[in-house]
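A reminder from the course coordinator: this example appears on the midterm review sheet, so study it carefully.

Given structure:
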């Protein structure tokens, strides 16, 4: 095959344009692998890229940071990987281990470099992460951003312990992964959702307490009541301006809030007294490194854990997938099969 099918995104303020294109199949250089992509998944970040709200972007890019498939070819000097091996790509291909640095986050898949929504993708060999055998390609495609972000938030930043209380917001990819990981670790999970249907699904997945934030706009009071006035140990904060102050009011003295998103745009700033008065550990993170990806995959295999997929779209229906992500009409992850 000399040409491949790919989705091209032209980012633009107010909404970019998506189109199906034919591109030459790339050839792996030294230290690179060529991956035959089988599935890719969407994140809120992909909307920011489409809307040209994610830093300096090229005029045209293959979108989506998250995808999985099998190795089609190895470049010179690659060892430890073999053709046919199933892998997922790392969100930040240059962040191998250790704390995040400016250099490590210079390049990110599906933003300032081509991403995974094409039949073939090039990756540095160290950024092609072998995936657990029990996962399908669609399931493996959900891991690089949402899965690893939830893992990093709970276990590397918050150092979650069995028996602790975790507050989660909504039923998007990160929150659902965090629910699964927190339950795996023996923590008690309180989760907010405005949908009765989604609350029922979250309960089946093991959430201990569900709060309808629409019926209870002062939901921090419910959280405090559920924790006997103490507050939760950890908040995985995906809302941003619309939820951060209530998250501050929900966390215990000395507790941890891991800020990873801002899907709830409407809201005011947080009063410094809340941060200072409670000695809150407020930490922002961005996904995780390749070493943490390997750690997460070992845990997934050990516990036979499977990601929650809400919808699967064909590649030709990419615009419908983006529209569903934009209106937050999904549960868990939105996946696109790459045919």
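Designed residues:
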């Amino acid at each position: 095959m000399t040409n491949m099918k790919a989705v091209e995104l032209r980012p633009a303020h107010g909404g970019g344009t998506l189109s199906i294109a034919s591109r030459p199949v790339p050839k792996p250089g030294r230290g690179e692998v060529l991956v035959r992509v089988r599935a890719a998944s969407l994140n809120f970040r992909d909307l920011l890229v489409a809307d040209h709200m994610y830093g300096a972007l090229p005029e045209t890019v293959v979108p989506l940071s998250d995808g999985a498939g099998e190795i089609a070819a190895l470049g010179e000097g690659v060892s430890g990987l073999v053709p046919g091996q199933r892998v997922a790509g790392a969100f930040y291909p240059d962040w191998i281990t250790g704390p995040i640095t400016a250099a490590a986050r210079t390049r990110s898949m599906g933003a300032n470099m081509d991403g995974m929504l094409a039949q073939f993708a090039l990756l540095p060999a160290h950024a092609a992460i072998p995936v657990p055998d029990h996962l399908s390609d669609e399931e493996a495609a959900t891991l690089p951003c949402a899965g690893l972000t939830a893992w990093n938030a709970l276990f590397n930043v918050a150092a979650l312990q069995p028996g602790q209380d975790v507050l989660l917001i909504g039923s998007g990819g990160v929150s659902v992964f965090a629910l699964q990981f927190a339950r795996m670790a023996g923590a008690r999970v309180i989760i907010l959702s405005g949908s009765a249907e989604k609350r029922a699904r979250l309960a089946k997945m093991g959430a201990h307490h569900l709060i309808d934030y629409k019926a209870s706009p002062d939901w921090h009071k419910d959280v405090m009541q559920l924790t006997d006035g103490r507050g939760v140990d950890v908040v995985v904060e995906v809302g941003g301006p619309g939820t951060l102050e209530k998250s501050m009011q929900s966390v215990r003295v000395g507790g941890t809030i891991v800020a990873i998103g801002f899907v709830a745009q409407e809201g005011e700033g947080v009063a410094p007294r809340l941060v200072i008065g409670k000695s809150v550990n407020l930490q922002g993170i961005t996904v995780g490194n390749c070493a943490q990806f390997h750690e997460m995959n070992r845990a997934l295999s050990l516990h036979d854990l499977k990601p929650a997929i809400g919808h699967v779209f064909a590649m030709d229906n990419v615009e419908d997938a983006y529209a569903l992500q934009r209106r937050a009409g999904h549960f868990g992850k939105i996946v696109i099969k790459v045919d």
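The radius of gyration is 20 Å. The CA atoms of residues 63 and 117 lie 6 Å apart.
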